[in-house]
Amino acid sequence: MRNEIQPGHRIVVVGAGMVAHRFVESLLARSSDARITVIGEEGRAPYDRVGLTSFFAGATEADLALDDAALSDPRVRFVAGDPVASIDRTARTVRTASRDVVPYDTLVLATGSFAARPAVDGAELPGCFVYRTIDDLVALREFVAARRADLGRPLAGRVVGGGLLGLEAAGALDGLGVESTVIHSGTHLMSAQLDRSGGEVLGRLIADKGIRVRTESRTTRLDPDRSGNVAGLEFADGSYEPADVVVFTVGVRPRDVLAREAQLACDPRGGVVIDEACATSDPAILAVGEVASFGGRCVGLVAPGYAMAEVAVDRLVGGDATFDGFDDSTKLKLSGVDVATFGDAFAQTPGALDVVYTDPVGGVYKKLVLSDDASTLLGGILVGDASAYGALRPLVGRALGADPAAYVLPAGGAEMPDTQLPDDAIVCSCSSVTAGRIRRAVHEEGCADAGAVKACTKAGATCGSCVVAVGKIVSTELTSLGRTVSTAMCEHFDFSRRQLWDAVAVSGLTTFSAILERFGRGRGCDVCKPTVASILASFVSRHVLDGENATLQDTNDHVMANMQKDGSYSVVPRMPGGEVTPEGLIVIGEVAREFGLYTKLTGGQRIDMFGARLEQLPLIWGRLVDAGFESGQAYGKSLRTVKSCVGSTWCRYGVQDAVGMAVRLELRYRGLRSPHKLKLGVSGCARECAEARGKDVGVIATENGWNMYVGGNGGFTPRHAELLAEGLDDDGLIRAIDRFFMYYIRTADRLQRTAPWFADLDGGIAGLREVIFDDALGICDDLDRAMARHVEDYEDEWAATLKDPDKLRRFHSFVNAPDTPDPSLAYVSERGQARPASRAERDAGSVLIAGTTLEVRR
Amino acid sequence: MTATSTARWVRVCRLADLDVERGRAALLGGVQVALFRLADGTVRAVSNYDPYGDAHVLSRGIVGSKLLVDGSEAPTIASPLHKQAWDLRTGAVVEAQGKDDRPIPAYPVAVDDGEVMIRWKDD
Ligand code: SRM
Ligand SMILES: Cc1cc2nc3c(=O)[nH]c(=O)nc-3n(C[C@H](O)[C@H](O)[C@H](O)COP(=O)(O)OP(=O)(O)OC[C@H]3O[C@@H](n4cnc5c(N)ncnc54)[C@H](O)[C@@H]3O)c2cc1C
Ligand code: SF4
Ligand code: FES
Question: A128 Cβ partners below 8 Å, 6+ apart?
């Protein structure tokens, strides 16, 4: 029978844990017919059990909560704190503890596991805990506080069970100020996951953290003191240890009692037996998560549970996904102790080979398990340094593609092949999306590019700073899945910027329509049009507003100003090197006063005037151009500023004329169009007051000439520029920068700044030196000529535009009312200047100044 | 007399006032409209108001096209603020940039003897 849901189909989920939550989220997303009742035993909404220990590091219940959108969906009824007591399979109903009877068409068991206590006397004494729920942790914390107050001394804690959970619990007790010992019956810690050598290295790492480890010790009895609280443990060898608080982490057992009582097939070792469709022996009943037994096993990890939830949902919406078995990969979450295992860690595959690296003193043990021909990665163990886990785990079952030794040798010994961000690293700060989440979007949600990842995780949807990083992870993941990575810029071109550059160069085409017709499709978009504009700017150096190409630009480039949140613009005149005369300052002051512009110094050492309306821009620029100012191109993907310090002209430490050089560089590269903005800095000595190493090119003066650094970045991912050359003279410096910029412009991707471009560059800094100084590619002549052409063709865009009546038409506010200001603009006064009124201020009509003060003249 | 708001054709500008694939704003009563002359010769009109950015800026966005799931190609306008995009024919959202859909009004346009007319309801 198929479980496919029809409208009105009633689904009842028993258990409101992590897997139930995922099941509901996924079903809601995939079926509008879903009518779901979720019945949970715990008196709270599903929470992140995996992150439970962070509770001791200050996380609150709210921090642990899972996204509540699913349970508050109108299609879902959520019953908390009323466990299901029985299932009536004939009537298709469940009955809860409070005797509520709920009918179902499909029942989903997601009751998880309970934490076991050893079957010894005294295991239930006050002061003995398990470690599974928020309630367990609250009780533990309260007991520790009260007991410490009673005894008036530090407490002795004993964690029974040295697996993953035991180590986490020991870390937590340690964090509570309880002296803790892990007691383990096996020969070494984490014996289910680690081989003996790995376990021994781990034991030393744990001991280094101040946690005692006692192995090969089986607890046989616990004794109370006179207050009735636990006081000590006795072991099989007759020895005894005092204990003020005990936590059992001896394993979990599936909560299959409902299923057993309803006569569903259960495994003798526990767990509701499911098939590959997650169906139990009753086709109307599914089981997912830790309670489900597949192939004779239950596994206490969340990822396989999530996989089951997705399979169950897929089946309900008519799909035929299958659950193919467990991935046992795990990583210990104990701060300062890195342990990870994945795949066939014990090398049980016939003929499997090991590659082992061990450094007992440094506390590192790494083992890779490979197929008999040493080509396919089967699994591995990483102790003490699990940094390669993220890179290796996706490779299990695949060719390693590099010398296995490279993955296990210590950092510095060999370059780690393509270093990866760990799963918990936040990639998108705006929406708190981790690398792991992005990978999941690719692996489990079928996202194949950064755009799809944005739609399903919100990564990149806010400020966009992370889009390049997201794209990189997506392509790495797709590659690891053996899928080809699309470098297509957008739906209109299958090319990357670099490929398109070559296509334009070779074809000699100079208009967007012609390029689109030849290499693309459709009518373009906000991605490819500005890109083509930027490429064309390097070939045809006609004025940027000319001809058809004018329509390719963002409004910022189109009207040569930066659009602000309310649709008004900012005006930034160039001030090369940050230098400005008193006369210049006075003109700026007058213009700002007359047009009522908000004025502020930028982070780039110049002055920005905000709140200019479209139709005011030519008037404002007319005044500025008359006073000798030029466009600062704050809008373009082009040179922004050359920041300088005052240098030897005034500063008592300066060894070269930093301002002079900054002005020279700014005048040379102004107007240079590039894949992303360009910034330079020039400092007069090694004190580096111009912060030049945070720029695309940083120049720092020394007694022997200029040191040139490249590939620096501020912004979202700051990076210091790297030293390319030392002791250059003025002309040598300029030649090197010319070539560096032109090489970058020709080979970088769309919106890729020099820092990430440089990070990906074959051959690194040494390779770059060869290109620029030794002409290894034989292109230096070309690069020099291209820059010479740029310098020759430069013309101030604003001066040119003001002379051209046709171009001035685009500054008309309305086609049928050219001088009428946008009636929606509204400003209030703040600290003596205008700023856009907020929505609330506009709604309340509390707007103090309407528009800017000057009437438009024409 | 029945008090209905009547729709009528209003002359807005000359076709020659519009550049191909670059929008212009127009003011009709107090309402801002964004006009676009497309490469295929048609003229489209939608609201100039970007409901995501809360500003009247759509006439200053980039015109393009988007392949829809049904295989047809929609002419689009992308906001210069945060790059959400709409179908110029209907005002439907074609790219929400991770936000909820916020469609915009689209107005019927006719070109008569070089004059661009919009069918406008005064109410
Ligand atoms: C105006 C200014 C802030 C200020 O009031 O000081 C500013 C304003 C903007 N910055 Fe900036 N940045 C300004 C200095 C900087 C600096 C400081 C500097 O240049 O020394 C940095 C860090 C240095 C760097 O770029 O590496 C900076 C790093 C960014 C970034 C991050 C770039 C990155 O590679 O991560 C962005 C986002 C982007 O470009 O994608 C950005 C983007 C922007 C945008 C374009 C955001 C936007 O889309 O609206 C703002 C345009 C404002 C406008 O309308 O003029 N701004 N921005 C500064 C203008 C400097 C100038 O005179 O031209
Ligand atoms: C401290 C800690 C750290 C962990 N760390 C990791 C890790 O790093 N990686 C990893 O993969 N896994 C980890 N796990 C395991 C992971 O939390 C579980 O695999 C996961 O929570 C299983 O989800 P589940 O929905 O199957 O069960 P659960 O999350 O246990 O949810 C089952 C729910 O069903 C309820 N329930 C039971 N019976 C009934 C009933 N009759 N009626 C109603 N409700 C009922 C229970 O109260 C419970 O709320 C950790 C667990 C703990 C405790
Ligand atoms: S000026 Fe720069 S840092 Fe400030 S809000 Fe704008 S983009 Fe962000
Ligand atoms: S959108 Fe990702 S960091 Fe802002």
Answer: A117, A122, A222, A230, A246, A247, A248
Asked if residue A735 has pLDDT above 80, the reply is yes
- Look at A530 and B73 and tell me if their CB atoms are within 8 Å: no
User: Could you tell me if the CB of A640 is within 6 A of ligand 1?
Assistant: yes
In three-state secondary structure terms, A518 is helix
| Exposure class string for B6-42: b at 16+ Cβ within 10 A, else e | eeeebebbeeebbeebbbbbbbbeebbbbbbbbbeee
Select the residue of A458, A491, A815 nearest B25 (Cβ to Cβ). A815
Identify the residue whose C-alpha is closest to ligand 2 atom 35.
A15
pLDDT of residue A5: 77
Helix and strand element counts for chain B (H, E): 0, 13
Distance CA A8, CA A345 (A): 47
* pLDDT single digits (tens) A415-452: 334 446 677 776 776 666 788 899 999 888 888 888 88
Q: CB neighbours of A821 closer than 8 A, spacing ≥ 6?
A: A613, A615, A813, A851, A856
**DSSP E strand boundaries for A626-749:** 639-644, 678-683, 697-702, 705-710, 722-728
CA A245 vs. chain centroid, Å, equals: 39
Q: Are A426 and A432 in contact (CB under 8 A)?
A: yes
pLDDT digits (tens, 9 = 90+) for A583-640: 999 999 999 999 999 999 999 999 999 999 999 999 999 999 999 999 999 988 899 9
| Closest partner CB to B25 (pick from A553, A565, A814) | A814
- Asked whether the beta carbons of residue B65 and residue A522 sit closer than 8 angstroms, the reply is yes
Give the pLDDT confidence score for residue A650 in this predicted structure: 94
- Angle, helices A780-793/A730-747, rounded to nearest 10 degrees: 100
Is the full-model pTM beyond 0.90? Answer: no
Burial (CB count within 10 angstroms: exposed 0-12, middle 13-18, buried 19+), residue A603: exposed
Residue of A nearest to B117 (CA): A816
Which mutation among A14, A41, A164, A341 tests ligand 2's pocket best, with the greatest number of atoms within 8 A of CB? A41
Edge-first strand listing for the sheet containing A35-39 = A76-79, A35-39, A10-14, A106-109, A285-287
Cα torsion A437, A331, A411, A391 to 10°: value is: -40
For ligand 2, atom 42, name the residue with the nearest CA: A83
Q: Whose CA is nearest to atom 24 of ligand 1?
A: A714
Residue A492 has pLDDT above 70, yes or no: yes
Q: State whether ipTM is beyond 0.85.
A: no
Distance from CA of A534 to the nearest CA of B (A): 15
Cα–Cα distance, A144 to A126 (Å, whole number): 11
